[in-house]
Amino acid sequence: DEYKSYLSFREHLTPEMPNLDDVPDYYQMGPGTLKIPNSLFKNNRDKICKRLADAGVTENSVIFLKGGVQEQQYDTDRDIEFQQESYFMYLFGVMEADFYGALDVDSKSSILFMPRLPDSYAVWMGELKTPEYFKKRYSVDHVFYIDEMKDQLEKLNPSQLLLMNGVNSDSKASFDTPTFEGIENFKVNTDILYDHLAECRVIKSDEEIEVMRYVNRISGEAHKEVMKMMKPGHMEYEGEATFKHYSYMKGGMRFVGYTCICASGENNAVLHYGHAGEPNDKLVKDGDLLLFDMGSEYAGYTADVTLSYPANGKFTEKQKFVYQTCLDANLKVQSELKPGVSWTDMHRLAEEVIIKKFMEKGLLHNGTLEDMKEAHLGAIFMPHGLGHLIGLDVHDVGGYLPGKPDRVLEPGIKYLRTARILQKGMVLTVEPGVYFNDALLEAAKRDQNVAKYINWDAIKDYRGMGGVRIEDGVVITESGCELLSNNVPRTVKDIEDFMAQYRP
User: What tens digit of pLDDT does each residue of 269-299 get?
Assistant: First the structure.
């Protein structure tokens, strides 16, 4: 029945059957993939309208947004595969490029403005869909062409147009404030929408959390497919290929949420390995630890999951110690998560677990726990933040908004992408790491305030291992947290048992 329904949905696109009754009011990539109702996006629209009204915004204000633009690669005519701008996706769920949207704050009435495409589009790209189609498809109140936009906005007679204008706290990039011919005829306010809309995205609705469960479930299964095939003698990029193939074939996920990190051996210590200069192109060797950080994306929402495991299926004793240290930090943090907890405190807790384990093993010495915390030893071995908000962006918005805790400018913790107090409905990653990065270790050796605490004779046996990261997605609940990435093996035993099934 589900497949027949899907075929019905596709048939309406042909000239022989332009029946609007068959146009879905939901997003679904294909049979067996998650069905996302348009109510998710309508509820998001209602949420920002209520928030602005509660903040005392001027009556008859209208939110005006520009969607993502279809671009070409450099000076060629090759289209870059389009992905919707995240704020526009949040409010409208529109998959197509070059749309605009408006939302009346008082009435919550929604409008989409679509491009008027040439007749040749039907030859090269597909059916010319109508405003009526998009009104049904996205469950909005009105749809007009962009060349009608100025006149339609004038009919609303808004007291002001609320436009996006702000700086992303992760990328430091400024939002491209929309404009159009005739905007000078309207009163424009660029001061309030950005922060309010970013804050709306911080707390996920039940429908959004269901999508996050789905992307984490598919990502976990894709990671396990990689675990099954990845052995010494394979290339790192084969792990990336396997992950993407499974995510798309089984989950309908055309995109991943970020560049896949498929590191082995010493590459594990490179936090964002996998970029164009290091394109997952090392041969995996016997004895290597693998650190695979990959997340699938569906309808814009992404997972971010990292697994670390031995390529040959069996941990060495040193690998086991490092892995267990990282896992202890991860689990300790998860056990403390609940509304009211400070995220910076959780980062410090993870560092403390790692330092204690290193002291017990004799890798750190000549001082107390407090001495080592004061010297920021944790930042040598975990030089990144504990985790981040996640949703429509892998590093989701809202980390450092006005009125929220400021960034702590200390080694390691300064890279934390939010310092907020946890609230129910937040979705975050918990991703402690333990690394032996040569650049950081050499810098530490030159700093006597740090070097005196490190047992250099013991540490040398771990250099070359790279490191371990264990990353999970969690949603904050009323009294704790829900683990979203709950379908992957995490303990040493579970990993070795799982991998043994797929090795002779």
Answer: 999 999 999 999 999 999 999 999 999 999 9
Whether the CB-CB separation of 388 and 418 falls below 8 Å is answered with: yes
C-alpha span between 490 and 470 (Å, rounded): 8
Which of left, alpha, beta for 108 (phi over 0: left; psi -120 to 50: alpha)? left
Sign, CA torsion 84/90/94/97: negative
Closest by CA to 57, choosing from 109, 108, 105, is 105
- Whether 83 contacts 300, CB under 8 Å: yes
**Rounded Cα–Cα distance for residues 489 and 184 (Å):** 58
* Residues of the chain scoring pLDDT < 50: 12-17
Cα 232 from Cα 234, distance rounded (Å): 6
User: Which phi and psi (to 5°) does residue 366 adopt?
Assistant: 65, 30
Looking up tokens 């016997």, which residue turns up? Answer: 286
> Within the chain, what is the greatest distance between any pair of CA atoms?
80
Sign of the alpha-carbon dihedral angle for 272, 274, 276, 282: positive
Across 209-239, b (16+ Cβ under 10 Å) vs e yields bebbbbbbbbbbbbbbbbbeebbeebbbebb
Q: Which DSSP category does 275 fall into?
A: S
CA distance 195 to 192: 6
Alpha-carbon distances of 70 from 97, 130, 232, rounded to whole Å: 6, 19, 41
441 in Cβ contact with 412 (< 8 Å): no
User: What pLDDT does 2 receive?
Assistant: 57
**Whole-number Å distance between alpha carbons of 230 and 243:** 11
Q: E-strand spans in 213-327?
A: 255-256, 261-264, 289-294, 296-298, 301-302, 305-310
Residue 19 pLDDT: 81
Secondary structure (DSSP) of 403-451: TSPPPP-STTGGG-S--PBP-TTBEEEE--EEE--HHHHHHHHH-HHHH
Distance CA 27, CA 482 (A): 25
Q: Which residues contact 136 (CB under 8 A, 6 or more apart)?
A: 20, 23, 25
Question: Is the Cβ–Cβ distance between 265 and 288 less than 8 Å?
Answer: yes
